[in-house]
């Protein structure tokens, strides 16, 4: 390595640095709305949630920019402004996400950031958006802690938190007279698994006061091999086996447990499983009770808006939309409703962050998965209806159908304002309005 | 032999870099804060590497500093940035004091694997602690400085930038002085032949322990910075990929120059950020190609771009690993 070689290297590095800086210069945009979208494009959650969410966002934004979304979203883009998405990867941990959120707001000058699937990332980015006084719309993450432990003005979550998934499951089992004298559980050993388990057990103890928890397993995240866990579950032979596993872990668990007869001995109850139905196909045992974290995908109710998403997404991506695609759709449509509400108040100008925040607080809007209402956390946290169903493989269509679908109203499965969700469940779910 | 810069010149340099923050765009400030924090921990790895041992578990002290500061901040309302750095350094240092003497008896791959194992034990314990938020972690309030709280985002970012650059800068100056000192040279000798060092009447274990302690203190302080910059902590701080990243900064920088550690850290953050923006689907690939490129074309690290001492290289051809002697910023 002689000197000139090193000088060359230095020049190349310097050139790269300068180009990046020039590229970074904000492009002034008059009639567009710059929307930062953060979702998993790599890592374990990409395949199950991140990429379907990205595909959903691209489909919806494309349709909005063409103005071909059904009523009440016929207007082009957001109130006539074309949407310009900036999509980045959520993978890499909370430290990276905090940094990238700042970059989106301060360097790329996005108007609003929308996204986040991991609860840890949601918890980490919320206070940063609040400090920067920029609007942040969380679309998916499960933990109820975001608004139960802190108050935010600039942060919204357009989907119900995870308490709904487990309360809905237990209500469904009660309504369908599923026997549950004994219960076993298998959940991943991280916050989602631990919290889901706590919510489900607490809700089960309310509606099934005599239930006995037998085997309670917490394998590590991404374990992939469940031989010993399945032995323990088969050995326990409980009436019900509950799991909040998702993605590759859930697929592995189902594939390994079915040949060993777990689904014949125990009723399998899965809190977030619709996204593994297309890949599993006939490997999914019939009669499994599943939730989809909302009335999504094959459990969604018929409406012009839902037909538009379901058929359009399927045509564009070759697979029907599941949870994540629905969640980002309801998020983008909610933001559209808020922006247009703000514009109707300020005379049609591009609204400021504070105008959008005021418009979004307490907003209600129709989505393909049902009516979304920002009812909790002073109008910053959404509640929504949920559907629970059983699986049934259809050999003619070569896909898993969902039968025995039951819908629960948002206020039946979500806590009322001002109560922590785990306290609400343990207190007997007071104030729930079920029909 | 090149003597290196006078410490006063280095102090002037640190001051200049701090003041330069006034004209930087806001988004670079927090990026530079994270880069400075990563540089501080990588500097600790370089200090330790001079004894021939690489720690793959600096995440342990990084997390210990971060969690220590976060818990104290939430329990007693300690928000002062400088106090938080001291608390972080103390937490890392205390842990280093316990672990250092135990681990100093091992070397090479055993040393690396043991540090890695310890950090993963800590990670496992944190994930299971639901009181600390488990794998989701928890948030802390924003830091203040000497009783002043900053509500303007730019001022708050600049304050953090200034504190982290000054602390990291002074750590760098201290490291340079250390490298030139008798103790620093003895550390190099441990790497070359620890038996001979023992025959000289010095304890090799003690030298490794002290270097390990310094690295732990730097890592603890770095954890405090990372916490202040993102106001959130989770067990990822102790995960092996986090530790691996710090080792990577150290490898990128090479061990010829303390300043190279800062440049490498900043370069890595910039490459990561821009590749994530323009190539969201393949940013890891870009990062990997960048790292490979540096290793292939600058095998002695980014520092070799401006440290060119032929004399030193001639010596290192016959007696390897003496290149650090003239370590200068």
UniProtKB/TrEMBL annotation, chain A:
Pfam assignment, any one: Peripla_BP_6
Signal sequence, renumbered to the chain: 1-24
Leucine-binding protein domain boundaries: 33-392
GO term, biological process aspect, one: amino acid transport
Record-linked CDD domains: PBP1_As_SBP-like
Keyword Transport: yes
Keywords of the record: Amino-acid transport, Signal, Transport
Chain coiled-coil ranges: none
InterPro entries: BCAA_transport, Leu-bd, Peripla_BP_I
PANTHER family noted in UniProt: ABC TRANSPORTER SUBSTRATE-BINDING PROTEIN, LEUCINE-SPECIFIC-BINDING PROTEIN
Name recorded for this polypeptide: ABC transporter substrate-binding protein
Organism: Bradyrhizobium valentinum
Lineage, highest ranks first: Bacteria, Pseudomonadati, Pseudomonadota, Alphaproteobacteria, Hyphomicrobiales
């Amino acid at each position: 390595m002689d000197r000139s070689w090193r000088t060359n290297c230095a020049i190349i590095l310097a050139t790269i640095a300068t180009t990046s800086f020039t590229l970074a210069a904000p492009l002034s945009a008059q009639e567009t709305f710059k929307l930062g979208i953060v979702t998993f494009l790599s890592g374990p959650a990409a395949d199950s949630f991140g990429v379907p969410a990205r595909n959903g966002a691209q489909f919806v934004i494309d349709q909005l920019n063409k103005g071909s979304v059904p009523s009440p979203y016929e207007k082009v883009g957001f109130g006539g402004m074309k949407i310009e998405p900036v999509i980045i990867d959520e993978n890499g941990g909370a430290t990276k996400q905090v940094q990238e959120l700042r970059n989106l707001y301060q360097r790329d000058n996005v108007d609003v950031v929308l996204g986040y699937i991991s609860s840890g990332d949601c918890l980490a980015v919320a206070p940063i958006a609040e400090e920067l006084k920029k609007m942040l719309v969380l679309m998916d993450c499960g933990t109820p802690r975001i608004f139960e432990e802190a108050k935010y003005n600039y942060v919204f979550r357009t989907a119900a938190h995870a308490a709904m998934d487990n309360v809905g499951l237990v209500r469904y089992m009660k309504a369908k007279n599923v026997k549950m004298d004994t219960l076993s559980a298998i959940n991943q050993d991280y916050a989602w698994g631990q919290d889901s388990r706590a919510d489900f057990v607490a809700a089960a103890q309310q509606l099934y006061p005599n239930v006995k928890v037998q085997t309670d397993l917490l394998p590590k995240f991404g374990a992939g091999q469940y031989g010993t866990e399945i032995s323990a579950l088969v050995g326990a032979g409980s009436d019900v086996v509950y799991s909040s596993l998702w993605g590759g872990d859930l697929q592995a668990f189902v594939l390994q447990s079915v040949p060993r007869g777990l689904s014949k001995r125990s009723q399998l109850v899965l809190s977030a499983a619709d996204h593994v139905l297309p890949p599993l196909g006939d490997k999914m045992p019939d009669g499994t009770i599943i939730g989809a974290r909302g009335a999504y995908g094959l459990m969604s109710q018929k409406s012009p808006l839902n037909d538009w998403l379901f058929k359009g997404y399927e045509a564009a991506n070759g697979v029907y939309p599941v949870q994540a695609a629905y969640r980002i759709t309801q998020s983008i449509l909610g933001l559209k409703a808020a922006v247009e509400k703000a514009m109707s108040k300020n005379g049609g100008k591009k609204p400021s962050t504070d105008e959008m925040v005021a418009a979004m607080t307490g907003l209600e809007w129709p989505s393909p998965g049902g009516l979304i209402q920002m009812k909790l956390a002073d109008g910053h946290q959404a509640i929504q209806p949920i559907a629970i169903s059983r699986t049934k493989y259809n050999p003619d269509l070569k896909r898993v159908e969902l039968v025995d679908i039951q819908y629960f109203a948002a206020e039946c499965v979500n806590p009322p304002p001002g109560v922590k969700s785990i306290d609400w469940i343990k207190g007997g779910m007071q104030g729930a309005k079920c029909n | 032999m090149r003597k290196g810069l006078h410490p006063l010149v280095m102090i002037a340099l640190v001051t200049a870099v701090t003041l330069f923050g006034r004209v930087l765009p806001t988004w670079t400030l927090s990026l530079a804060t994270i880069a400075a924090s990563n540089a501080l921990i990588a500097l600790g790895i370089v200090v330790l590497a001079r004894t021939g041992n690489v720690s793959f578990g600096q995440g342990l002290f990084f997390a210990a500093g971060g969690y220590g500061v976060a818990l104290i901040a939430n329990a007693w309302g300690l928000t002062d940035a400088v106090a938080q750095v001291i608390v972080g350094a103390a937490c890392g240092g205390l842990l280093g004091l316990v672990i250092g003497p135990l681990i100093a008896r091992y070397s090479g791959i055993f040393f690396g694997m043991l540090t890695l194992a310890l950090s993963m034990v800590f990670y496992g314990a944190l994930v299971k602690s639901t009181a600390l938020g488990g794998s989701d972690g928890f948030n802390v309030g924003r830091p203040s400085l000497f009783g002043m709280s900053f509500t303007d985002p730019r001022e708050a970012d600049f304050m953090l930038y200034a504190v982290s650059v000054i602390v990291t800068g002074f750590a760098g100056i201290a490291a340079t002085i250390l490298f030139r000192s008798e103790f620093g040279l003895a550390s190099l000798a441990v790497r070359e032949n620890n038996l001979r060092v023992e025959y000289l009447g010095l304890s090799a274990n003690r030298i490794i322990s002290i270097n390990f302690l310094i690295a732990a203190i730097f890592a603890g302080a770095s954890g405090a910075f990372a916490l202040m910059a993102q106001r959130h902590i989770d067990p990822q701080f102790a995960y092996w990929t986090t530790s691996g990243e710090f080792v990577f900064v150290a490898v990128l920088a090479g061990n010829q120059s303390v300043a190279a550690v800062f440049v490498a850290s900043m370069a890595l953050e910039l490459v990561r950020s821009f590749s994530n923006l323009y190539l969201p689907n393949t940013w890891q690939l870009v990062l990997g190609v960048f790292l490979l490129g540096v290793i292939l074309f600058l095998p002695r690290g980014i520092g070799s771009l401006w440290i060119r001492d032929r004399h030193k290289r001639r010596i290192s051809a016959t007696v390897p690993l003496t290149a650090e002697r003239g370590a200068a910023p």
